[in-house]
Amino acid sequence: MENEIINELKRFIEYFTQKKSIELYEIKINGPSGNENNLMGIVIFFEIISKEKTFHLAMKTARKSDELREKLPVVLQYKRELYAYSEIFPAFRKFIQEESPKFSFDFFPEFYWLCSEEKCETLVLKDMRYEGYRMLNSKKIWNLEHSLLVMEHYGKFHALSFALKDKKPGIFSKMVGKLPPLNFEYRNVMNCLDYLINILKYSMNLLEEAGRNDLVQKFNAIKTEFVDTLNYKVPAEDKLVICHADCWNNNFLFKYDDERFSEPSRVCFLDFQLVTYHSPVVDLSMNIYSTCDHSILENFDVLLDTYYKSLWKNIECLGSRAEDLFTYEQLREHWRKYALYGLILMHVSVKLSLFNTDEYPDLIEMSEGKWDFQQCLKFQGKNELEFRRRILEAFIHFGDTFL
Fold first, then answer.
1. What is the Cα–Cα distance from 392 to 386, expressed in whole angstroms?
2. Which residue intervals define the domain CHK kinase-like in the entry (predicted)?
3. Average pLDDT, the chain
């Protein structure tokens, strides 16, 4: 373990034990989560064991390599997540206490500490695995029960933005003012336009091979919309909620009441490194297209209905009139305009989901300039056929339903 990480761990332990008045304790480090799926940082699982209680914790810390920090948006992602836990979530909790104390805001890990110093971007959270939560196998498709539960909770999460903006517009405006569009920051480390062009070419080739030239023509007709989506060109009136925006399999933990693990009772959202101010459909489209195939997309209307019913109920719970803020018709209009976000980002999330352990990027080689992130996404792994199937089905769904 790097000395810098050890020092960050020591700083937190000193802070935590003093705050909890713990004098005698042991530290058990259970090790890092591994490099896979953690391009931007490292997660260390550890325990603070006192006589009265054992605290199970997870420390997320940004990668320190100057070379990696130049090639990947390490700093901007960690800064956004630190902002989410230190400013956004506390503002939501304060609003809940004032408007509707019975509103449950319990689908995130408990937060203990952060450091925002350069090369020390770190936060410490509760290790939810010891609360009975588990992550799904990233190579497997979600079933309908998992998708419906997540739609319900996105409805609850987005309701906070709608209601806070309605009740306290000054506070909300100040909060989202510190969330500039992601493309302003990403373009300094990645050529997003080239990436988009490659995605479109790849997806159109899949449609041609499947004999869907009708959809190729329709998608080609909205190329400009794809570019605008990636560049976050969004009318002010369509920016409605604070979005999670990183909604793939590995950013959710589920809890179950039985050992079949087929129908979850609770969900925990992870990783707010892409948190942004946009349309609710940014979250919905990335989640649905990144975790579902045709078997779940056949229930698309059920998913959207479930989300909207939850959104409506929770906006009303927080004291605002849902029909005055966002109608179901507007939701479907937003899907037509902004679900392109999910179609674009699923190329990253599904690719990473299907990688085998030995196929993940070698970060040392990346820091030495032997390849870049886009080359990683062009890599054809052992599950490339499944990747192609998932991309094709998502583009067919959007094309047949909304074009």
1. 10
2. 123-320
3. 91
